[in-house]
Amino acid sequence: MLYSRIAGAALLCLVAATPIAAQDSTSCANCSRTRPIGPSEFARRSSGTISFIQSRPVGQLAENIGFGYGLDGAYLLRLDRAGFLSLRAGAGFAQYGNESFRVPFSETVGGRVQVKVSTNNYMVPLSIGPQLSIPSGPIRPYVNGGLAAQIFFTQSSVDGSEDDHTLASTTNQHDWTSTWVAGGGVSIPVYSRSMSVLIDAGVQYFGSGHARYLRPGSIQDVSNAQIQITPLESATHLMLVHLGVKLGL
């Protein structure tokens, strides 16, 4: 009889405790379950482009140098959620001229070991400013503008004739100028799932800067292992054409 009462009391306690235990386990399960962490607001508002560029000099600059080719990268931060207004910062790197010749490694070694002496002319266009865009649709036009800078420099290097390993290099001339920039283009979406991918094409015009720069033939070798540098100086009006890919969330 006593055992029956004890067993009944134990069963009653077990039944009463079951909902509480279930509630605790549910609560603990909810506590242990972690929510997935998505991209931050900054990441969602950020995008970038990488492009092939062709630099097209205009005016006096076009009389002195030819087209250049290289790469350009740009970062965009949407200032509104939809993306009508963004802040754009861009930087490019283009080679607009080069020359090279082979010479003996040294007078002691003689002509059996040859090296290649190369001289390359570069420009680096930089820009920052606002961009207005149509953020949706199959074709998304945009315009941009702002402050800009153009860096010109010429570098000579000595490379091995077989493996193109650079043995030594020096910067022969460098200069820069500040200016303004205005441009526009279109973006065409090609993929839009976890990440949006768009084809991006456009052009920028760099305004009235003024700088000194070199071109092929501006450096002449003279006696006693010396060189004579004849820099050019003019306005640096420039068109920059780009075609690339834009990536964003």
Which features characterize this protein?
2 domains, two-stranded antiparallel sheet, alpha+beta, elongated, 62% strand, 12 strands
What is the number of E strands? Answer: 12
N-to-C series of helices and strands: HHEHEEEEEEEEEEE
> Unreliable segments (pLDDT under 50, ≥5 consecutive)?
1-29
- Percent helix, as a range, is 10-25%
What is the overall silhouette? elongated
Helical stretch count? 3
Write the layout of secondary structure elements.
Layout: H1 2-32, H2 41-45, E1 46-57, H3 60-64, E2 68-78, E3 85-106, E4 110-133, E5 140-160, E6 166-192, E7 196-206, E8 210-213, E9 219-222, E10 226-229, E11 232-235, E12 238-248
Antiparallel strand pairs: 1-2, 1-12, 2-3, 3-4, 4-5, 5-6, 6-7, 7-12, 8-11, 9-10
Structure description:
The chain is of the alpha+beta class. 16% of the residues lie in helices and 62% in strands. The chain has helices at residues 2-32, 41-45, 60-64; strands spanning 46-57, 68-78, 85-106, 110-133, 140-160, 166-192, 196-206, 210-213, 219-222, 226-229, 232-235, 238-248.
Entry summary:
With 249 residues, the protein is α+β, with helices and mostly antiparallel strands.
